[in-house]
TrEMBL record:
Single biological process term from Gene Ontology: L-proline catabolic process
Keyword Methyltransferase: no
A Pfam cross-reference name: Aldedh
InterPro entries documented for this protein: Ald_DH/histidinol_DH, Ald_DH_N, Aldehyde_DH_dom, FAD-linked_oxidoreductase-like, Proline_DH_dom, Proline_oxidase
Domain Proline dehydrogenase: from-to ranges: 2-184
Keyword Oxidoreductase belongs to the record: yes
The protein, known as: Proline dehydrogenase domain-containing protein
Organism: marine sediment metagenome
Length: 367
């Protein structure tokens, strides 16, 4: 990924040779955490570096979930159950403890079960450290340092009020959650067995399902198809779908129900390259519109058939996304994010109104 490319570029700088202060944070709530750690270890070996890796559970869970739903993509970039994140943290902690020849692990946690797991796996207390936030977990880590001789670094955010407020709000949301260890440890109504529950056991009991992708609005309607534009394979698929239309010339004409005088075709311009026209358009005249209205019959098509037309149109737009993206780029100069947004908006409208028609009383014919 781009972040790892940037990290490696910095890490390879000759000026950093012999310096062991370069640090990276890895979030355990991401399924890719283990792969990222492996990549960092490989970099450290290849560039002959000693680096610090701070392992955290992750502070943007709500944002990641919501972003995936808004994008309409299938699946999430983070684990959806807390137990899965706890298991991931322990698994990646063990991985880091086996890489201490190149990595100095820093375990940021206030969870007593996680701390106990790290202590159980670690062979040398001098080759890693714990970390806690200022004002949190002080009692726990003081006991651990006194009993086991570990090190604990206190993490204290520094900055202006405007910069710190968002950070502090995230901490309140994170630690105020019912599943938070920090919240449970001070709640006398929560039994000790629940506070110190083994995440490996509770993981199999989780049944939480968070909808996203096509099923986001079910059973009402199917969500519009999303594209993860941060995913290189997805970009390759989009480019393959657009490629056949790279030099295509479209000829847009009005669909008339009556004879009409042929109009002169107007040549369209590509905003990014005026010499490469995407095609031509023949516009309908006011007389053509009036003639179409005069010849139109009363639309008494059954509701189910009207819905089917809208839903079929939505499916056809999605299946021809490559051509649509190419046309939007060549005629309107739109980048991929805008192309995706325009397609998804059109598809959403078609499916939304097809479903709304079922629950909307008929208003009769308009004249």
């Amino acid at each position: 990924g781009l972040s790892l490319d940037v990290i490696e570029k910095v890490l390879s700088e000759p000026a950093l040779s012999g310096w062991a202060g370069f640090g990276v944070v890895v979030q355990a709530y991401g399924p890719r955490a283990g792969v990222v750690i492996d990549a960092l270890y490989d970099m450290a070996i290849r560039h002959d570096r000693k680096i610090m890796v701070r392992l955290v559970k992750g502070a943007y869970w709500d944002t990641e979930i919501k972003r995936a739903q808004v994008k309409g993509v299938e699946g999430f970039p983070v684990f959806t159950q807390k137990a899965a994140t706890d298991v991931s943290y322990i698994a990646n902690a063990r991985k880091l403890l086996n890489m201490t020849d190149r990595i100095y692990p820093q375990f940021a946690t206030h969870n007593a079960h996680t701390v106990a797991a790290v202590l159980h796996m670690a062979e040398d207390k001098e080759k890693f450290e714990f970390q806690r936030l200022h004002g949190m977990g002080e009692t726990l880590h003081n006991i651990i340092m006194e009993k086991h001789g570990t090190h604990c670094r206190v993490y204290a955010p520094v900055g202006a009020h405007a910069d710190l407020l968002a950070y502090l709000v995230r901490r309140l949301l994170e630690n105020g959650a019912n599943s938070s260890f920090v919240n449970q440890i001070v709640d006398e109504d929560v039994p000790p067995e629940v506070v110190a529950a083994d995440p490996f056991e509770s993981l199999s009991d989780t049944t939480l399902h968070i909808p996203t992708g096509p099923e986001l609005y079910l059973p009402t309607r199917v969500n519009s198809m999303g594209f993860d534009l941060m995913h290189t394979p997805t970009l390759d698929v989009i480019e393959s779908a657009r490629a056949p239309w790279k030099a295509h010339s479209w000829a847009a004409v009005p669909l008339l129900t009556v004879e009409a005088k042929p109009k002169k075709a107007v040549r369209l311009l590509n905003p990014a390259a005026s010499s490469r026209s995407p095609g031509t358009v023949r516009n309908a005249s006011p007389a053509d519109v009036q003639a179409a209205l005069d010849n139109a019959s009363v639309w008494d098509t059954p509701l189910e058939q009207r819905q089917e037309v809208l839903l079929r149109a939505a499916d056809m737009l999605e299946s021809h996304y490559g051509e649509i993206f190419a046309l939007l780029a060549r005629e309107a100069g739109k980048g991929l994010p805008d192309c995706v947004a325009e397609l998804r908006e059109a598809v959403d409208f078609l499916r939304y109104y097809a479903c709304q028609a079922t629950n909307t009383p008929p208003a009769g014919c308009f004249t």
